[in-house]
Amino acid sequence: MKAAFLTGLRRLEIRDAPQPQIQDEGEVLLRVDVVGVCGSDVHVYREGQIGGLAAQFPWIVGHECAGTVEAVGPAVRHLRPGRRVAVDPLIACGRCDQCRIGRKHTCRNQRFLATPGQAPGAMVEYLVIPADCCHPIPDSMTFVQAALAEPLSIALHARNLAKIKQGQTAAVLGCGPIGLSVLAALRHAGAGNLYATDLIDRRVEIAERFGADWTGSPRCQDIVAAIGRAEPHGVDYVFECAGQQETIDQGVMLLRPGGTLLLVGIPEQDRVSIEIHAARRHELTLRNVRRQNDCVREAVDLVGDKRIDLDAMATHHFALAESQAAFEMVSEYRDGVIKAIIHVFQ
Questions:
Q1: Distance CA 262, CA 241 (A)
Q2: Mean of the pLDDT values across residues 44-61?
Q3: What top-level class would CATH report for the domain 2-136+310-343?
Q4: Closest CA to 310 of 217, 185, 196
Q5: pLDDT per residue over 290-312, tens digit each?
């Protein structure tokens, strides 16, 4: 089979690889139809690591995927060959203390697709994965929509952690795919005024389509002052989705006393700082958001039922042989790209 291997920094090569075989009775063989290029993939592409986890080249990236079941293990009951599915890229052990208390996303033995040192990624023609990671999609749902359910599932997890109530206000700082997904999830939940920012004009423009009531760019204005004029007492929640020190600082200043800052973005650096006196005086809550926790099924249902529309997020499409170009485009934010989609079979 063909697979896209990261062979060095900013170097992707299409190579032949052995087709994987089902080893466990609960696994399925999946024909991978599409893969979305995620910001975490780009971290590894540019830096060779993410979150302190270094890749050993050659390495296969990509985890936002959807495809068709080709074969199933003898213990698999809910899937049959030919079934179209979206994939939860987390492979949890199901036995550790975290799994037992409903925190599979912090499983102590987890293997997440494309995470260095864990499981190879999905930019391959065929993938073997536990059947529990596969969520059937309706006939009306495209593979692209199914792949976009993965970033939406992270947004749903972030929204669930916030416990946002109808009418409460929020700012989303960073409107890449995760930030736009957060906007869509908050709007669906009945949030009040939503404020969205990004450095890239195209993302600022499209944020309104995903639910933002106000949009702005820190390149053009003082974000804290501008939102402060609309919300003089501060917003209830800030979802930091850029992974930047600047947006973390903005988030602290935008919150009302007692507000919550949710750190969704993944910083490139190992340490970030908090303006502690403002955070302490206002008794702010900081919540880290790690991936998704059993939210893929809900995401598939919301997109499949057209209660959330993410189609505008998929701005660019590439064949597997064009993976290098796709990653370069996303890495350099070229041509207004939001989400690049790799079509493995084309």
A1: 9
A2: 93
A3: alpha beta
A4: 185
A5: 999 999 999 999 999 999 999 99
Compute CA distances 63 → 36, 89, 188, 251, 253, whole Å. Answer: 7, 6, 25, 29, 34
- Token reading at 146: 């199914």
58 preceded by cis ω (within 30°)?
A: yes
Tokens of 120: 């190879």
Q: In sequence order, what are the beta bridge partners of 235?
A: 255
For the chain, list the strands marked E by DSSP: 2-8, 11-16, 27-36, 49-50, 53-54, 59-60, 64-72, 84-87, 90-91, 111-112, 126-130, 134-136, 170-173, 194-197, 214-216, 235-240, 255-263, 285-288, 314-319, 339-343
> What is the assigned CATH class of domain 154-288?
alpha beta
Rounded Cα gap, residues 181 and 152, in angstroms: 5
Interaxial angle between packed helices 143-162 and 177-188, expressed in degrees from 0 to 180 and rounded to the nearest 10? 70
Query: Scanning the structure block, which residue is given the tokens 């003082």?
Result: 222
State the residue for tokens 């009945």. Answer: 190
**pLDDT tens sequence across 98-146:** 999 999 999 999 999 999 999 999 999 999 999 999 999 999 999 999 9
Q: In the 8-state DSSP scheme, what is residue 108?
A: T
Distance of alpha carbon 78 from alpha carbon 88, whole angstroms: 16
Does 250 score more than 80 pLDDT?
yes
What's the token pair of residue 180? 């736009």
Are 177 and 206 spatial neighbours (Cβ–Cβ below 8 Å)? no
Counting DSSP H helices and E strands in the chain, the numbers are: 10, 20
Residue ranges matching CATH 3.40.50.720 in the chain = 154-288
